[in-house]
Amino acid sequence: MSLPILTSAPGKVIIFGEHSAVFNEPAIAASVSSLRTYLLVTEAETSDIVELDFPDIGLDHKWSAAELSHVSMPSKVVAIEHFKNLNPELNAALEPLLKSLHGSLQYHAAYCFLYLYFSLCGTRRGVKFTVKSSSPIGAGLGSSASISVCLALAIGKLGGHLNSKPEKLTKLELDFVNKWSFIGEKCIHGTPSGIDNAVATYGNAVLFQRQANAETKSEQILDFPQIPMILTNTKIPRSTKVLVAGVKDLITRQPEIVSPILKSMGQLASRGAKILADLDDSNYADLCELIRINHGLLVSLGVSHPGLEIIKALGDSMSIGTTKLTGAGGGGCALTILNRDASPEDVEKFKSILENEHKYKTYMTGLGGPGCAFMSSEEIKENLPVIESLFRKQSSVSDLNNTLLPGKTNLKWVH
Ligand SMILES: Nc1ncnc2c1ncn2[C@@H]1O[C@H](COP(=O)(O)OP(=O)(O)O)[C@@H](O)[C@H]1O
Ligand SMILES: C[C@@](O)(CCOP(=O)(O)O)CC(=O)O
Ligand SMILES: [Mg+2]
After folding, report:
1. pTM, to two decimals
2. What is the assigned CATH class of domain 229-363?
């Protein structure tokens, strides 16, 4: 596909089953309509470099043709070979390209990019990749999966793997994006379950389960109910990679105790899926009860944080709803499912205390929007000045959403 290329993918909220999903238990997640990542691929200033411009994490890096020439492409483009273990030769070859990057945010984003780039289109030079996200990064809302999906889709197109139909992404193409974005997630956090990239690829909501043979089973939930919910970002930084590794350690130390907890979380997701398929006044309290139990089990795994407990304690003491951390925890976000009778005044008060006293950020966003998408080069070219201005450092989340949010603007996205 010719340049420019523009891709997008949503963030997600895990309703039930974070962490246990990594250990092959069922889990439920929904895409978040208004929190998305956008990737623009354009010609670089010179024809012999590859440039990353990721302003959200302060990364602007160029690799010269000479540096890139030391890495050879893996011989076959078969995702399954990278599934269990990332290719050790490719990893070793990428190390010198990554050594000047600062901190884990930049390192992991660049590693994910380079791994997909060399696996899917490693000889192409003279390209610049610019990423902007309206989703908070490292907050439990799946920004790592949404950037991985944007990269897998754009690089898949650049490498000629995904150009079968100009007017739609076929099921096979979506499966390709899902597989390669899982590999991108592996670069970012080691042992992902695959639920986040599945939701970011296919959209809507999924009941997901990883299988022992590394395959995944995901059932689309098309009519996901709009549960009245507040998402609160504590802005406390944390890393999914570290938290997932911590749970793995705990299992190794306390297998008899922790395995039943993970099983229980899987049961919560299965039971939750049945309730969500038929949610009404009669079972709403059951849903809230499952949410409360799931949070308690996550606390027992050691992945909560005092900052998340503030949200839970406030929600409980105001009797406004039921709170559970979402994503990897350790900071980041919690969701509060509002009681049916929560008054608008109380909801406002709850949000205002969190925002003003604790400096948290709250969101009320719809769940279950579209998955990954791309824009045709003709559509991009017609709107290039506007689109390029959005990818500059100073553009805001609302600028991005006002102009690019699929389904909400006049620009045509292909799904
Ligand atoms: N907009 C973005 N720009 C650059 N890197 C990003 C962006 N969004 C996500 N990332 C990458 O994803 C990582 C965060 O992933 P993770 O710890 O799994 O948190 P989460 O997925 O909950 O946001 C960051 O370290 C960064 O490498
Ligand atoms: C903890 C986990 O279940 C979810 C992580 O989500 P996030 O990166 O915190 O958005 C890990 C996974 O399922 O890959
Ligand atoms: Mg993540």
Report:
1. 0.98
2. alpha beta
